[in-house]
Each structure stands twice: as structure tokens, then as C-alpha cells.
Amino acid sequence: MQEIFRGFLASVKNNKQVQGSCQPLQNNRQGDIVKDLDKQIPTIIKKTTAKDSSVSSSRAALRAQEKARHKAAAQQRLLMLLLAAALLINLISAYFLYGLLVRDVSEQNAEQFIDTEINTHIHKVTSFLQSNQEKLDKLSRNPEFVRVLEEKNSDSFAALSKAFSSQFENLVEFRLFIAGETYVDASGIVPIRFAELDLIRRSENREPHLPEAAQINDKWLVHFVSPAISDESQMVLGTLMLTVNTDALSKAFSSFEKDLGEIVLQQKFSASAAQKIFSQGVNDNRNSSHEKKIPDSNWSIKFTPSDHLLERTQESLSLWLLITAGCAALSLALAWMLSRVLARVEKHSEEQLAPTLAGAATATTTEAIAPSPLYQKQDILDIPVFDEDEDILGLSNTSRKKQAIDISANDQEVPSAIFRSYDIRGIVGSELTPALAEKIGQAVGSEALDQGEQHLLIAQDARIHSQELTRALIKGVLSTGCNVINLGTVPTPVMYFATYHFTNVRSGIMVTASHNPKEYNGFKIVINNNTLADEAVMKLRTRIVTRRLHQGQGQESSQAIIPQYIERIFSDVALASNLSIVIDAGNAVTGIVAPQLFEELGCQVTQLFCDLDGNFPNHEPDPTQEKNLQALIAKVKEVNADIGVAFDGDGDRLVVVTPQGQIIWPDRLLMLFAKDVLARNPGADVLFDVKCSRQLNQVISSYGGRPIMWKTGHSPMKAKMIETGAVIGGEYSGHIFIKDRWYGFDDGIYAMARLLEIITLRDQNIDDIFASFPQLITTAEIKIAVADEDKFALMTKLAEQGDFQNGNIVTIDGIRVDYSKGWGLVRASNTSPALTLRFEAESEEALESIKKIFKRELLKIDSNLALTF
After folding, report:
1. Pairing of strands 261-267, 777-778
2. Per the confidence metrics, is the pTM higher than 0.70?
């Protein structure tokens, strides 16, 4: 302050000197004023300093008050925070304790009750089964029965049966069957159907023959069988079959309290839906079921608890409430005490800092007027952006632009047309090259690794370029770090079988173009026993063009699989008699497996085009074309064979020819398969594609099955088989999927073995067998050439603009239109550049009428189509 006034005084003196020459008369007066100011400066400075001190003290007081308010607010926030933390901890502990003391204990109580109930009924059922089986086994060893069987004296057996039948309660029928002389017989109290015939056959072959329940005339009966064995030759002379009703079992379940839920006795064979023998109680479908297998049987007990039972086994809340309340009180008390302790610590700290704060209050005020760093006159948007920061989002990154160019170029090298709905397939050289096969190997190997598979099975068909493509494919797979097991040249179903046979690998690639002409090749891909289809196939292409590929070094090994495949079928299929068969392999890969298998099954085999030649010199390996079956028909007639079969290029499809030269298309084969399988699996689902006969639906329903129509293609059909749990399925193109006693994949070779087994069990030739199934007037598959890039767009246009009059349109796959007297279908082929059509009707007139409608609508969409129907 003194500095200020002295500056002021100096300015006044200077002013006096300047004005001296102009105003001499005022010099004395101004000098007096300056002297007075010099005298008053100390007083003014003292007063000003006191005033500044007073202002500083006021500011310090204000700061103290403000700090006190902040302190009180901070203490309140601290207390609220502690209370909130205590509440949160209490909620978490209450939830945890509820699960531990109430929910878990309630579940244990319910499980213990359910387990006790199930075990009680299992004991009752086991006693029923063991009692009847032991009595029957004892009788089968009775010398009198053995003697009667050796003599084949039916009268003596009838007398013995009557004498011993009194030993069995709830008896329906007690019969003896001489080994090898049992046939299907629909007459009698207990008819002998395929299911009973299979049970008797297993007994005669000394295979496991557990008791089986069978529904006859809407009533459940139970069959027991036991083989009678000669003491001298140890040969099976025949089988004793005991059939009883389930009244005893019903009584055993009658004590079950209905309000506790539902208890079910069910029978289930491998790969088939469970059959409910009977049930007690009510299932409201709100609670999960518990199931337990009955030892030494195909039966199980399933228990579904009711809400009433779960309430009855609910644990009391008393202990949980007591512990939760105690924890809440304790935590709140601890939170309050902690807040008090923290407040005392803060007060003590402030007392220690008080002198320092007092000294700070008397400090100069220059700090008070210093600009605060919290305030900026320059807006943050005004901060300059330098050149090196301008591309902070990477918009002008040259390396990224280069990568985008690389991907685009790579995209052109991977034609999307070969990545089809079911597999990867194209013309070798122009569409599919070894370089692309290597990239596909990288993509599949990477996908397999991502799905937890460390190995891939690789197999190939007999096409002339399969070996080169396979080597490139293996190179690509190994470069990802995935291992390869090379199966060599085998049919596709053999590769599928290997994914189930080996314990450490469930994935594989088959190098094949199936039934396509010789210039085609491709890849069928299985990962974790699921055949890739649709989006899964396209994702492989995406992996390639985006280079989302693993890197590593896998190991390659080789493994033989054909002997194991033949042995597996040989152990499963048994022919009741010898048959003569002609096998047309079409110079494709089935020629190295099928003749050997059917000879081992006991057939007299005539080979037709079974030598491998990837040029297919005799006919294309497509049995769905009638022209490709003419040589087979002629050979069957020439050698007077019982049956003829043609396989496609990789062995997953078949078509059958009868001795009269009649072609049995696969939808009619499926009728016979459905009849056989549904005899053992009543109520099971049977799957077929949109190209199959309308009559197939009626046949499946008549034998107690549930018909399901689905889209064409081995990949979507297999996926639907898994989804529905169907025991059998088939396509008009020849793919047959058998889940009964097999694995559910499409296997033309195994399907033929099962067909022969069915035929040999019937006392009819194949022409008579299929004559018993209804048949309408049908066309074979009609193919209209359409470019791959145009066929799907054409179908979309037809679906939007087509006028099919009053027909019922089904668009599961393509357009199928059902009329009162027939139906027609048009769809885009997923394996060739074509539209596929098929028609069926009750009369020729109706057939032609439906054809005309389809022809008119197709030409309306594209008048350049070369229609051949």
C-alpha cells in the first residue's frame, strides 16, 4: 500500500514541475499539499492495512463456516453410504442363505421323496419281470420240452403248455416256436408281427432278449422268451414265448397318490421315442421330470412331481428369517459404529491442522486474486488440432485401405456359387482348384478347432481329381494345427460311420461330388456329427475371404475303416435266407465295399460296373435317372436275380430293381421300411421330403406313425431327424436315414442290408411285397436346365406371381401344390444348375392337367425355359 501512495506522490511532484512554467502562482499552494500528503501517508497505510486484515479475517471465517457445512454433509453422506452398503450386504447374504437353507434343502427333500417313490416302483416292476423270466427259463430247461422240440411234436407241446400254464399269473398265451420255422402271422390271440419275430430271432441267436411290452388291440401285453437248448449238441432247438397282461403291474402302481404328480412306466429302445405303457396320476407340465432305468430291461420309471408335492417338501422359513434378521441388526450396528469412529478421526485431524490454517488466514491476499485453474477463457473446441492427430479415427490409414483391397480380390477368387445348401461342389478347374481346396481345408480346420475338435477324418471317392484335391485339402487343414486321420478311398457313409466309431474324433470331410457328372467334385463336411448346411457352409467362405483362420502345424496319420464298417453291419443284420443280388456301383467308390459286404451276409452277388473308374464310362453315377438303370434291369433279368440295386457316386443313395424289371423308387422303399420300424416303435416319427408320394403319408399313418414332410437335401433331413427324434426318414432321391439300430445318417449300403433282412423274413418275392402298397400314376424326377445364378431368383418370382388356381400350396422347399386328385412340385436343385419337377395323380388326365398348370406358370415367368414335360 505504501508503494501505491509513494507512486501517487511522485506523480504529483512531476506534475508540479511540468506546470511550473505555466502556473507560477500556484507553486506554493501545491507544495503545501504535497507536504500534507507526506505526513498523512503512514496513517492512510496503517488504516488500509487494518482494513485488509479485517477483510482477510472475514474471508477466513466464511471459509470456516463453509468447511463446517461441507464436513456435516460429508458425514451424512458417509453414514448413508455405510447404511446402503450394509443393506446391500444384507440382501446378498439373505439371498445366499435362502438358497442354502430353504431352496437347496427343499430340492433335496423333493429329490429324496421322488427317488424313494421311483425306487419303490422299480422294485415292484423288477420283481414282476424276474419272476416271470425265471419261471420261463426253468421251463425251457425242462427235459420234456427239450424232447418235444427235438421230436417237433406240436400235439405234445400243446399238452405240456396246458399243464404248465397254471404256473403263470395273468397269462394270455404260452407258445413254442421251432428254431428257424417262425414267420409273420397276424392270426391268433397274440399275432406274430415283426417286433415279435425280432424278439424270437434274438433268442434263437442267443442274443440279448429282454422282456418287451407290445400293444395289441389297444391293450399292453408283455412278451418273455427263453431259448430251449439241447443238452447234447448245445444247439438252440426253439423258443418258449410267454405273453402276460399288465394287470399285476397296474395293481403295483395303484397305491400311488395321484395328487403327488404323475408316475409313468415306459419302454424305450435305442434311437426311438419312449412308449408309455401306462401311467398313474396327473402331469400339469409345469415341473421337470425325473427318470430312472429299470435294470435288465428296456423299461424305465419317469416321475413328474406336482406343485402339491413340491409345497409338501418345502423347507420352513423360520431358521432363514431368524438368521437374516440377526445379520441385518448386526450389520446396521456396525455401520453406525464405524461412522462414529471415522467422525472422531476426522475431528482429531482438524485440530492438528488448526494452527496451520490460522497462519494461512494472515497471508497476503495476492493468492486470493490469482486466476483459478478451473476456469478457462478459451473454449475446448478452440484447441488447435495438429496434422498428426487428424486421422485419429483411422479414416485415411493406408494400411487399412490396402487390406480392404486384398479382401475384395480374395473374394473374387472364392466363387460363392460352389458353396451350396448341402455341401461345397463345383466344376474342377474353372470353379474348384487345388489352391481353393487348400483354403477350404484351412476354413474347415479352423471351424473344427473353434468347436473343440482336434482331429478331422479325411476321405475321398474314386473321381480322377479327388486325390489331388484331397492332398491340397489336407495341407490346408494341417496348417491350422488341426490333425488329420486319412481314411483313403471309401464311400461317404463309411466316413460318416468313422465319426461314430472312433472315440476321439467326430468330424470329417468327404471329397466327393456324389451323383454329379465326372467334371464335378466337392466336399461334404461333418463337425461334431452334424453335417454342415446352409449358413454353416457359407460361413466357411466368409472365413476364407476375411482370413479368419488358425495357424499351427497338425499331424497326419492313416487309418483303415472298411473292415470295421463291414463287421458292424454284419453283427447287426441277419438274413433269414440266401438271396441273389446284382450290384451296380456305376464304376464309383461303393464297388470296393458293397460286393464284399453282401457276400459275407450270405448273398450270391453279381457285380456290375464295380471296378473303379472316375470317368464313369458306362453311365453317370446317378440312379435316380431311369436311363442309368437300364443295364441293371437287363442284368437282373439275365441272371434271374432276386433283386438289383444301384448306388450313387459316393454310396449314400440307392434305387432298387425287382426281378420283373420294376423300379422301386425310394419313396416306396420308405413305405416298407416304415412298416417294419413302426412295428417296434409305434407312434414314432417318419420323415420324408417334398418330392415323395402322397401315398407315403397315408401308409405311415395307417401303421401308427407320425408323417413329417420336410425340405429336400441330406443335410436338412439329418438336422430334422435330430430335431424330431424320427426313427427313419427318406428322400425320393434315394437318401435313406435309419436311426433304428443304426446312427441316423444317410447310408445306401446299410439301407440295402436292412431291406434284404425285411424281405427274407417275408414269404413273398419283392414284386409281391411292393404290390401290396398303394400306388398312383407318377413321373420320375424332371430336370429343367437353369443357370445356378438364375434358378433361385426364378423360383422367388414364381412364388410371388404364380397362379396355381385352387391348389393348396406348400413352400417348405420350392413350390408343391396339392390338388384333390394329385400334386405337382417345382424347386431349385441345390446340387446342379436345374429346376427339379415331379408330378403324381390318380389318373393320366389329372396328371396332364396338373402338368399344364405348371408349364403355363413357368413359361409366364420365363418364356425361354426348355420344358420337357
Report:
1. unpaired
2. no
